[in-house]
């Protein structure tokens, strides 16, 4: 298994659709309401959403796997 595929499974990339969907919904609303969109800031914000979500999931999975190794299953 490739390292990227392992990473994608570990951080559950498939579940990141909620962050992408909320971002796209906000963009559609801004376009619909005639607001100005700063492309550079929007891209930085999008990257921040994804990186925060990936980090939170990775930390959660790491602590869960460590706890599972130390504690016996019920």
Protein architecture, described:
The radius of gyration is 17 Å and the shape is elongated. By secondary structure, it is mostly helical. Helix content is 76%, strand content 0%. It has one domain (13-68).
Structural category: mainly alpha
Radius of gyration: 17 Å
How many strands, what sense, and barrel or not for the largest sheet? none
Name the shape in a single word. elongated
What count of structural domains? Answer: 1
Binned, the helix content reads: over 70%
Tally of separate helices: 3
Question: Short description, anyone?
Answer:
With 74 residues, the protein is mainly alpha-helical.
Question: What are the SSEs and their pairings?
Answer:
Elements: H1 3-10, H2 17-32, H3 39-70
Task: State the main characteristics.
single chain; 74 residues; mainly alpha; 76% helix; 0% strand; elongated
């Amino acid at each position: 298994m490739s390292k990227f595929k392992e990473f994608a499974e570990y951080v559950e990339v498939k579940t990141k659709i909620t962050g992408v969907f909320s971002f796209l919904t906000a963009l559609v609303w801004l376009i619909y309401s005639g607001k100005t969109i700063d492309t550079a800031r929007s891209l930085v914000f999008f990257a921040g959403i994804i990186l925060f979500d990936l980090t939170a999931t990775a930390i959660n999975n790491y602590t869960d796997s460590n706890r599972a190794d130390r504690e016996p299953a019920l």
